[in-house]
């Protein structure tokens, strides 16, 4: 028998206990909220994901149940968005959703600007990857080429800073940068986030706003992709209970 096949067959079957199930469910719901930006949509997506995954996880077992759940959730959501996009293109009032999507994009820019002000580059990246995009500690460490200990420490410090960030948002509202270079930089961060372009997001944060040429290049290369992303996001805002992004939900918690 092929050695790889033999190794796969000999892998231990991992069936999560009650405590692990709770942790898996929490991770799944956090991820669903991040990609749907809607409590109701996130709840529906989480339930559908469990229905699709439960046989594999509790029947056959899976070596990495969390990654398996998140992969199913993402695939399910992409299929749902594409289906809704096809329907929306046939509706005469779809321009209303475009306006909502534009408003949400501006809000993401503002929240990213506040986060960038209060957090170090590592803290910002870890916070966005873990809390907004649903990556595990191990996955974030791999993407950032650092240790899990460093990621945990950065996440802890970022979470402690969130209270100050919330107070600033409540007292001063969403900020708007007057410096053109910073505007372009923040807009690039928001574009990378909305497009789920993790590598670009990491590159931008690690190089910071002083590298304006990078931001310009990103915006030029991503312009068409962003337009498509906004159209897809517009579908979500029409079908969801409100136009609330995961960043806004975290800041309001």
TrEMBL record:
Domain RNA polymerase sigma-70 region span(s) in chain numbering? 27-86
Which GO molecular-function terms appear in the entry? DNA binding; sigma factor activity
Annotated ranges, domain RNA polymerase sigma factor 70 region 4 type: 117-160
* InterPro entries in the cross-refs: RNA_pol_sigma-70-like, RNA_pol_sigma-70_dom, RNA_pol_sigma70_r2, RNA_pol_sigma70_r4_t2, RNA_pol_sigma_r2, RNA_pol_sigma_r3/r4-like, WH-like_DNA-bd_sf
The alphabetical list of record keywords is: DNA-binding, Sigma factor, Transcription, Transcription regulation
A Pfam family cross-referenced in the UniProt record is Sigma70_r2
Can the keyword tRNA-binding be found in this entry's annotation?
no
> Which Gene3D superfamilies does this one have?
1.10.1740.10, Winged helix-like DNA-binding domain superfamily/Winged helix DNA-binding domain
Record GO biological process: DNA-templated transcription initiation
Family listed: Belongs to the sigma-70 factor family. ECF subfamily.
What name does the UniProt record give this protein? RNA polymerase sigma factor
Q: List the source organism.
A: Paenibacillus radicis
Its organism's taxonomic lineage begins at: Bacteria, Bacillati, Bacillota, Bacilli, Bacillales
């Amino acid at each position: 028998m092929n050695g790889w096949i033999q190794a796969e067959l000999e892998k231990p079957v991992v069936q999560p206990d009650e405590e692990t199930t709770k942790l898996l469910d929490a991770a799944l719901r956090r991820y669903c909220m991040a990609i749907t930006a809607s409590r109701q949509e996130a709840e529906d997506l989480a339930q559908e994901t469990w229905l699709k995954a439960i046989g594999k996880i509790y029947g056959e077992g899976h070596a990495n149940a969390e990654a398996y759940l998140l992969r199913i959730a993402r695939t399910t959501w992409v299929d749902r968005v594409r289906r809704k996009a096809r329907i929306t293109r046939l509706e005469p009032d779809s321009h209303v959703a475009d306006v909502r999507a534009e408003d949400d994009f501006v809000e993401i820019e503002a929240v990213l600007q506040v986060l960038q002000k209060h957090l170090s580059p590592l803290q910002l990246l870890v916070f966005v990857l873990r809390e907004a995009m649903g990556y595990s500690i191990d996955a974030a460490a791999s993407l950032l080429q650092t240790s899990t200990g460093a990621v945990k420490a950065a996440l802890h410090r970022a979470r402690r800073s969130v209270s100050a960030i919330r107070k600033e948002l409540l007292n001063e509202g969403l900020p708007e940068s007057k410096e053109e270079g910073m505007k372009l930089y923040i807009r690039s961060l928001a574009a990378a986030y909305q497009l789920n372009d993790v590598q670009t997001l990491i590159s931008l944060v690690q190089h910071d706003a002083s590298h304006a040429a990078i931001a310009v290049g990103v915006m030029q290369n991503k312009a068409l992709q962003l337009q498509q992303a906004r159209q897809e996001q517009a579908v979500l805002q029409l079908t969801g209970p409100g136009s609330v992004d995961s960043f806004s939900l975290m800041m309001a918690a």
